[in-house]
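// run 5 | inverse folding | seed 20
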């Protein structure tokens, strides 16, 4: 794939916050943990490679919830998404943030990824909210890993099984909770909009089977989806306190089993040894 697939280099201050990018308080609860892990991984890649500007691929990146903040750090980001509407929103969001020159939207999906992007051409690949919807999750992980350079990092975010079971049970849908717990794909019934859910062990196995070393595992939205919105939005200090609680629980393996989402950071052998 030729260089025109990537936005030109431009240097900007390397500071940003995903919380400032989110217009609603509860949005930060859904992204803060992942963002902190991702930003740290990007910073470590910059130090290891000696390059201030990294090439980042965001598969299924939609309207740029992560792509735009990554671009604001000074990196080049290619977003692949099947939705023209999402890509239009991405273009608008990037322009409003002043990073249109570093964000490129391309229509496509994980299955035909290398029809639109370069194989082995990226320092960091984001695969957030994609694995749940591919027919073969193992193939999906292998595909995005193939987009990494020899010293690359994968950020994988997918739906957690335990969080769905807990949510159905707390809503009084006990039969559906049991169905999700026992179903091989973690689905609670025919009306379930999510084709696949995962345990932390399943996700780490997929990453390792694709040839990566697991650098970190975090539970995401452990409490956020269970706390009444009115409490977070109106109680003084509740949002910051809940954010701190989410951050503390994210690294504890005991809470991975009840998280709504699971985040796995995978590293190639080159990156792991850097």
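// decoded
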């Amino acid at each position: 794939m030729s260089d025109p697939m990537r936005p030109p280099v431009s240097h900007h201050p390397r500071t940003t916050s995903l919380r400032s990018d989110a217009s609603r308080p509860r949005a930060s609860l859904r992204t803060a943990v992942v963002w902190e892990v991702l930003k740290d991984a990007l910073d470590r890649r910059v130090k290891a490679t000696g390059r201030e500007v990294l090439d980042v691929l965001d598969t299924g990146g939609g309207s740029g919830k992560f792509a735009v903040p990554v671009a604001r750090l000074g990196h080049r980001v290619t977003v692949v998404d099947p939705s023209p509407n999402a890509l239009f929103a991405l273009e608008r969001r990037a322009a409003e943030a002043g990073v249109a020159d570093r964000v490129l939207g391309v229509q496509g999906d994980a299955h035909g990824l290398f029809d639109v992007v370069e194989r082995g051409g990226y320092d960091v690949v984001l695969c957030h909210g994609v694995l749940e919807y591919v027919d073969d999750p193992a193939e999906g992980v292998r595909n995005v890993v193939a987009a990494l350079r020899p010293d690359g990092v994968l950020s994988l975010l997918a739906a957690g099984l335990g969080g769905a079971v807990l949510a159905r049970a707390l809503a009084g849908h006990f039969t559906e909770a049991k169905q999700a717990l026992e179903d091989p794909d973690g689905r609670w019934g025919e009306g379930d909009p999510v084709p696949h859910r995962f345990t932390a062990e399943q996700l780490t196995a997929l990453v390792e089977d694709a040839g990566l070393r697991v650098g970190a595992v975090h539970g995401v939205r452990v409490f956020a989806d269970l706390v009444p919105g009115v409490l977070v939005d109106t109680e003084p200090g509740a949002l910051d306190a809940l954010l701190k609680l989410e951050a503390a629980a994210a690294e504890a393996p005991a809470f991975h089993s009840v998280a709504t989402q699971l985040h796995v950071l995978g590293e190639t052998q080159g990156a792991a040894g850097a």
